[in-house]
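Structure (tokenized):
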């Protein structure tokens, strides 16, 4: 538990960012009481940091990251699973269509993301793969919305250029991916 010396630091940051965090959670969940419960969990996590909380370089970014992770954990726990029916083995197998070429690029995407600068990979993962709003990303990283949009655009352009080379992507006349050559995993 924090000492009285750390409480003012935490309380100041909490007072400054509480409403913004709550608003973000409410928009994500569309359930005010649930958002308030999760926000209480975030406060307890901040409280457990003790003196370390005051040494954070950007308390707002830390609070948003913990809030996002708390929400993710909550949503994972909400996924209910239903048992498979007993006769599932007797069901006819669907004839599966091959994946479109662009959908087959996921393996190449994962490898190329690890080769990008950390800032580029992070914004692509957060905004494009995890669905974070650019405005929320900007807030979490202390950026203005135009700066976040520009950063994402540049990261996408670098990703496209790197994937085109690394995966030998051929573009169709319609502008989509026509073919590509899967890259050998460098760890083999």
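Design, position by position:
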């Amino acid at each position: 538990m924090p000492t009285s010396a750390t409480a003012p630091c935490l309380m100041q940051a909490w007072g400054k960012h509480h409403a913004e965090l709550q608003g973000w959670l409410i928009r994500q969940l569309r359930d005010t009481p649930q958002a308030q419960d999760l926000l209480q969990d975030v406060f307890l996590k901040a409280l457990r940091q003790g003196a370390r909380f005051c040494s954070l370089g950007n308390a707002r970014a830390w609070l948003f990251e913990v809030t996002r992770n708390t929400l993710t954990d909550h949503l994972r726990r909400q996924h209910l699973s239903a048992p498979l029916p007993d006769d599932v083995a007797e069901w006819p197998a669907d004839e599966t269509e091959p994946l479109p070429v662009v959908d087959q690029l996921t393996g190449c995407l994962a490898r190329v993301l690890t080769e990008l600068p950390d800032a580029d990979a992070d914004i692509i993962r957060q905004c494009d793969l995890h669905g974070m709003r650019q405005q929320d990303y900007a807030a979490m990283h202390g950026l203005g919305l135009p700066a976040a949009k520009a950063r994402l655009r540049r990261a996408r352009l670098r990703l496209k250029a790197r994937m085109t080379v690394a995966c030998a992507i051929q573009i169709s006349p319609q502008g989509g991916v026509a073919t590509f050559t899967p890259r050998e995993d460098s760890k083999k």
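Reviewer-requested clarification: Residues 100-179 form a domain with the Arc Repressor Mutant, subunit A fold (CATH 1.10.10). The longest helix spans residues 7-29.
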